[in-house]
Every structure is written in C-alpha cells, then in structure tokens.
Amino acid sequence: MEQRKNLIGAGQHKEYADGEEGLHFPRMECPPLEHPDVEPFEIHPKYADKDFVILADVVKFIPGITADMVDWWWANLEKGYFLWAPGEHYGFEWIIPPCDGGYMTVEASYEFDPANPMAVTRRSIADEYPFAQCYEHVIMSTFETHPGEMILIHTWQDQDDGILWRDLSLMEGRWYKEVGNVFAHLPDFPSHMDYESRRLNQFLPQLYDMWKDHPDPWQNMHFDLRVRQREDGTWERISPNLPPSVDDVQN
Q1: Neighbours of 199 (CB within 10 A)
Q2: Which residues does 236 contact at the CB level (< 8 Å), separation at least 6?
Q3: What is the DSSP annotation of 98-150?
Q4: pLDDT digit string, tens, across residues 116-173
C-alpha cells in the first residue's frame, strides 16, 4: 500500500504572487547575552583539503534553558518557528520532517525574504563535521542556494543556569572563490543569528514544558544531539536519531 504523505507546516503566513514585494515587520525587544571569551575552533586535519573559510564564530551564554530543551527544539521547529524570531521568520515548512527523516531533515524557511523560502538541509556529523573541537551537542546544516555554499553549525552544552551556545559558519574554499562571502548576499544574517540566540530563552522553556509529557512520538519528536570524539579526533553522534516506529511504541 502506498503511504500517504502529510504536509507539515508552522501555521499561517502570507502568500505572495510572483514579483510581489514582501512585507517586513519589526523585531521584538529581548535582552542582550553575555559573550564569554573562549579559544577558537580549528579545522581537523582530515578536512584541510577543503580549504575552509570561517565566516563567523560567536559564543554566548544563554540563561534559563537546558541542552535537552535545545535538542527537542531542533525536532519541533514547526511548534514555535514564529516565536523564535518575530518580524524575521515569515514562514516554515518541513520538506522532510523529523518523523519521516529523523535527524536528516530538510526544511523550507522564510527568513529575510517573506516571499521566497530557503532550503535548509541537515548534514551528517560523522561524515562532515569539520572542526577538531565540539561542545557536547551539535547540529549542522547547509543552505542549498548552491550545494555546500554555506555551512551553519550550532553547538551547545549545559552550564550553571543555562547553556554555552556557539554559532559557526564557514564555506569551502572553492565556493568562497566562486561566490564570495555569503554574508554579502545575506547582509542581515549575522545580526539575525544574534536575534535568534537572544530569543531562545524568551519562549523555549514554556513551549518545552507544554509538550514534555505529550505521548505521541510522531507529534512530539525527541532528538539526542550529543556527540563523542573518535580515536582519530573526528566526531560522531551518540544516538542515531531515527524516526519513530510502531515497534518503539509497542515495546
């Protein structure tokens, strides 16, 4: 029997005709975050031939949330995408949702441009994470305007009363030579990442608490995004983060 696919979205948003100018709305006020001093991450020798150019490496302390909340958030973006960055998040759809693809999702997110989404694809940590250092949890994505044009990494771990959160973005040297610094095409992107970081503790604890006991694993996915270092100094996930199955529920 052919399986019927459901479309999963993040609620209502304005649709635009071709060529119609998008409407933009102001950001919400939220407090600044502390920026701890830390050592820079270095590219692992295994990936030296890619000639990576690091575009951003920003570390913040976010009070009031836990690493487990953030793990859950990456599997449930549709539940609070508009709360995450009001005025800059205009639409969201799962192309491959976590309940179908597990960690390896694909999303269409409307950021910066209310009329046209960007495709965001999760990447394998075991095969592609390029740094010799990592925090306890990590997620890695690419924006598919060109294959591999920009890699975005978030990595985080628990600290007293909050998390240490690190945003890193980088490009392979061949793409950098072809298209230049992607921030030239997305000039608001660095400040947008900062806005997203400052917004996390404004809604995530309440949202996580509302869903924490919801019993349906297809509606309430849980990721474990912890990693461990292998003997060669590269990284891999502790958990495969697969989609839920009937056997999981029945057992």
Answers
A1: 21
A2: 125, 126, 227, 228, 230
A3: HHHHTT--EEEEEES-TTS-EEEEE--HHHH--BS---SEEEEEEETTSTTSE
A4: 888 999 999 999 999 999 999 999 999 866 656 899 999 999 999 999 999 999 999 9
The β-bridge partners of 94 are 8, 107
Measured between alpha carbons, how far is 235 from 229 in angstroms, rounded to an integer?
A: 4
Give me 26's structure tokens: 């102001």
CB environment 10-24: b (16+ within 10 A), e (fewer): beebeebeeeeeeee
The residue type at 41 = F
87 φ/ψ sector (left φ>0, alpha ψ -120 to 50, else beta) = left
- Give residue 189's Cα distance to chain centre: 14
- The helix/strand count (H/E) of the chain reads as 7, 10
